[in-house]
Write a structure and sequence with these properties.
Length: 476
């Protein structure tokens, strides 16, 4: 069979062109370190790379939010600790003033010292962090307390609101990052109650009442998987889940993803990898389930995952939750607080802060004590001592309230720290997955480059023996 010259030329051109393309691709991978630099290099990997980069971007935004929220929480906790220390000093002075051997001049000196402590306490109540006031509720652009003249006296009135500023940590997770000033610096006359609102727990139909903070601890006690999931080789990893109630777990073997409820689908790990033995999926509310996917057989499945739970108030006896109670009564026998809650909307485990709002503030307590000591001649010694006894107890109550608020913020700061640590762990895993998808194996690419160069040289040498020299000169 006779082969036309143009056919031979075309085949030679195609062979050389293919070698050149492989050579250039290998050179690009060596210079950039990337196996997939553009979608045409590997469309399937390029799509996964886009998903991983989007996930990495969301992770970074959540981590930055956690840092900012942690700064606010830590700053608030530090200011409340300083305020509690001031009240300890003030109470010691008040106890000293109750000594019957002191002269009027001695008590007046103590009154002057209390005026100074009162001013320092007011300054702490109006503390700022990043240009925003820490204890003004959600009205962070305004001072929490404003001085007003009432006759011959001065009062510090709370002018913020009674809301808790919510901070978005991403993936639907929100956290209260402050305690309103009327609660942190007072709260002896409750006018209502509020929840931090991080778990889906709601107040019941019956009004709640109390004179101090309460923490409602919702513990996840176990995760049950639908038999369809266990048949597919999916198992639960006990001890760290936060999902409460029922949600749907969906595995798409075609896309290679797994999703909990309406949460973002995530790439399934290789069943043989260590990650598969403890893999976390999260729903849109931020509730998590840890799964063992090492036995997953590859089938598509969509079935229920159910988390059971129990609820306790401030370390009290836990009560099992069946998620149907609309007015569950919880009582703290130590504080006398009674809280009625609706558990039908619970979505995840965690701690809910119950705040009972009131009108008292410790700034005015010190003002009243100092005024009483300075104007003791008008009050009389017996009345003064009685008043000091009452004010001393109120100051101690206020100090305990500040310490309670400080502990609350510290606990939230610890939670933010834990979330940030988890985010960093996820970030490392996503970066590893991204590297596996887009980074080139430099040793393999170098070998391919060497082989391609040899193939190209061999093709050119063979062509030089078969085709006219002028053609090769033209091709080169």
């Amino acid at each position: 069979m006779r082969i036309a010259s143009n056919t031979a030329y075309r085949r030679l051109t195609n062979t050389l062109q293919g070698n050149y393309e492989r050579l250039f691709r290998a050179q690009d991978q060596l210079s950039t370190g990337l196996r997939v630099a553009k979608p045409s290099d590997d469309p399937a990997s390029a799509a996964r790379i886009i998903q991983l980069r989007q996930r990495l971007s969301r992770n970074e935004a959540s981590s930055q939010a956690a840092d900012r929220g942690g700064d606010v929480l830590n700053a608030g906790a530090a200011r409340l600790g300083d305020a509690a220390s001031l009240l300890s000093e003030a109470r010691a002075l008040i106890v000293q003033a109750q000594n019957g051997t002191l002269s009027a001049e001695d008590r007046e000196v103590i009154g002057t010292q209390l005026f100074s402590l009162r001013d320092q306490l007011l300054s702490l109540g109006n503390s700022e962090q990043g240009g925003r006031y820490l204890f003004s509720g959600s009205a962070t652009a305004e001072e929490a307390f404003q001085e007003v003249k009432l006759g011959d006296s001065v009062r510090a009135l709370y002018v913020g609101d009674d809301l808790t500023q919510q901070f978005d940590l991403g993936s639907g997770v929100q956290l209260g990052i402050n305690v309103p000033g009327d609660v942190a610096f007072g709260g002896a006359k409750p006018t209502g109650a509020s929840l931090s609102g991080t778990t889906g727990l709601q107040f019941g139909a019956t009004a709640s009442q109390g004179q101090t903070y309460e923490e409602l601890l919702i513990d996840q006690t176990g995760t049950a998987l639908d038999p369809a999931l266990t048949a597919a080789g999916v198992a639960s990893v006990p001890g760290q889940d936060t999902l409460l109630g029922s949600d749907t777990l969906t595995i798409d073997p075609v896309a290679g993803t797994i999703a909990l409820g309406s949460g973002d689908p995530v790439l399934m790990p290789d069943p043989t990898s260590p990650e598969a033995q403890n893999f976390t999926v999260t729903n849109a509310d931020g509730a998590q389930v840890r799964l063992d996917l090492s036995g997953y057989a590859g089938a598509g499945v969509s079935a229920a995952v159910t988390g059971s739970a129990e609820l306790s108030i401030s370390g009290g006896t836990p009560v099992a939750i069946d998620f149907t109670e609309t007015d569950l009564r919880l009582e703290n026998g130590t504080t006398g607080s009674v809280v009625h809650v609706d558990t039908t909307q619970l979505t995840q485990a965690g701690t809910e802060l119950v705040v009972f709002e009131g009108n008292t503030n410790v700034i005015d307590l010190l003002q009243a004590t100092a005024e009483a000591l300075v104007s003791q001649d008008e009050i009389g010694a017996p009345a003064l001592l009685d008043r000091l006894a009452v004010l001393s107890d109120e100051v101690e109550r206020g100090r305990n309230g500040l310490l309670s608020a400080q502990a609350t913020l510290g606990g939230r700061a610890k939670r933010v720290e834990d979330i940030d640590r988890d985010l960093q762990g996820v970030r490392v895993r996503v970066i590893e997955m991204l590297s596996e998808e887009q980074d080139a194996d430099l040793a393999e690419v170098a070998l391919e480059l060497q082989q391609t160069q040899f193939a190209l040289q061999s093709t050119q040498a063979a062509a030089g023996r078969v085709l006219p020299r002028s053609l090769l000169d033209f091709l080169r």
